[in-house]
Design goal:
Blueprint lengths: L5 E2 L1 H4 L3 E2 L2 E6 L2 E4 L11 H7 L5 H7 L3 H6 L4 E5 L5 E2 L23 E2 L7 H26 L6
Parallel strand pairs: 1-5
Antiparallel strand pairs: 2-3, 3-4, 4-5, 6-7
This protein binds protoporphyrin IX containing FE (HEM).
The site of protoporphyrin IX containing FE has 20 residues, from α2, α3 and α4.
């Protein structure tokens, strides 16, 4: 099983030209060099947003779900410190360069850090249904008692 590649922002910033265009969106690193000419919004905006975190730029445009679905095709890794789950669901691999073929290309999914519920949450998950059932039982018993008239 291959490791997920982790890049620093400094490493990403070394790729900010028309021939080598990377950026970060939501903690994930994308190499969009091969996509530049296909991008419906034009290549200039992508080059301008490259070498840095382009999350804001990407979101501000209000990209369609289809556009968001295309992101995985260009995923090359994650930014260091990223604590999420990355599911890789590549529809197509349009390139043949080494850079566009990350080591984890064939893996269906990666779990970088799985957040387990805390002990407190687990106790709550157990207690809350019990309290509800208990309360319902008490309520039922109280309602059954005859009302005493003076
Ligand atoms: C891998 C990353 C990206 C993909 C796959 C992508 C894909 C697309 C697609 C499919 C469209 C057509 C409209 C839609 O379906 O939403 C589009 C439009 C556009 N994109 Fe991107 N995009 C990416 C990154 C960016 C970034 C980083 C910027 C900004 C710096 C940007 C700016 C634009 C603009 C300005 C349009 C035109 C919007 C319009 O005409 O209404 N895109 N993009």
């Amino acid at each position: 099983m291959a490791d997920l590649r982790v890049f620093s922002l400094k490493q990403v910033s070394a790729h900010k030209s028309k021939d080598d265009c990377w950026f970060v969106i939501s903690g994930k690193v994308y190499n969009v060099t091969k996509f530049l000419q296909e991008h419906p919004g034009g290549e200039e905006v992508l080059v301008e947003a490259s070498g840095r975190d382009a999350t804001r730029d990407f979101e501000d445009v209000g990209h369609s779900p289809a556009a968001k679905g295309m992101l995985d095709n260009y995923l090359v890794g994650v930014l260091e410190g990223f604590k999420g789950v990355v599911s890789v669901n590549k529809q197509s691999t349009t390139s043949s360069t080494k850079q566009d073929k990350p080591a984890f290309k064939d893996m269906p999914a990666f779990v970088i850090k799985e957040e387990k519920p805390s002990a407190f949450i687990r106790v709550l998950e157990f207690l809350v249904p019990l309290v509800i059932v208990g309360a319902a039982y008490v309520f039922k018993s109280v309602m059954k008692e005859p009302v005493l008239s003076s």
